[in-house]
Amino acid sequence: MEKIQKILDDHVYSNNIPGISISVTNDENTLSLQSGNTSIQSKKPLSKDDCFQIGSLTKMFIATTILTLKDRGDLHLDQYAVDFLKDTPVPATITIRQLLQHRSGLEDYIIQEHNEKALVAWGLTDVKLPPEFLVQKAVDATDNDQSDDCYAYSNTNYIILGMIIEKITGRSVSEVLDLLFTQPLGLKNTSLPQAPVSLSTNGHSRLTDDLSEETGELKELSVYNPSVPWTAGAMTSTPEEINMWLHALMTGKLLKDSSLKEMIDFSFTSEETEKYGLGIAQFHVADEVCAIGHHGGIQGYESLALYFPEENLYLTVLINQMPSGIGDIVEELYNALVTKEQAQS
């Protein structure tokens, strides 16, 4: 534990990161550690129950929800999204599977402009932007000949999946996630907010509001508008609860075996070190070691949740700064954890 704590402290104090919170789970044992503060202004030390924006880790929850609806017979993956979303801007030829795999060909809405400002920057305002509006912006920017089933990561895909969930269930996605996951698993700090929220941690950003370039200034962000990232990245949680959820997923407690198998049937992406399945990725960490999970980044926060099958190890790292170099931190933590386990065995 001391070695792991030192790694966190070194990154916080040497690299000027406001705070890092991690959870490590192996063989039903959980270790939660923190370093740094909830805010550079308050200097309040982080605790294991402090919530973070988790960004695109949200996509794992949304994909699992879609697969749960499949398991219940409410949809099938090769069905067209427009079957559920008539009278919306969703193109008629896109399937649910293509959305899950980021193979729809749709442009990413977050880089499109509204009133001369990128949509992602509207997350720092209190203006509510409905999902149909976000999708329309992406559709308008999409080349009609682009849907060739090639991988191209686009947050638009998961906004459409959120719309499908609400259409099928007649409930808000926030309610559905609560019924499927947070209540059954006892996740008291995990949610998809429906209105701008102030968390116990503040985000910190060295990027421009549109995330296009790094600046020399560190801005502190206290409130974020969830209507902009919504089902593509607006969930909040803690490292320990992300590990609990990921463990439940990987041990077959959330999906039928056939659906979990489909979810982790990975295909190549444009990145040499990453493959993508249905809302979840396979990464190469620390000299080709395979891990399963997702990376997330949103204004002021960065996250990475991974399951290492060979070691039966779950590792979630949440940082209240973006960018933060989270990949290097995770690799360093993994190497320290595996060395420790090998020494004990």
Automatic annotation (TrEMBL):
GO MF: hydrolase activity
UniProt KW keywords: Hydrolase
UniProt-listed SUPFAM superfamilies: beta-lactamase/transpeptidase-like (SSF56601)
Superkingdom, natural source: Bacteria
InterPro entries tied to this protein: AmpC-like, Beta-lactam-related, Beta-lactam/transpept-like
Domain Beta-lactamase-related: 5-325
Name of the protein described by the UniProt record: Class A beta-lactamase-related serine hydrolase
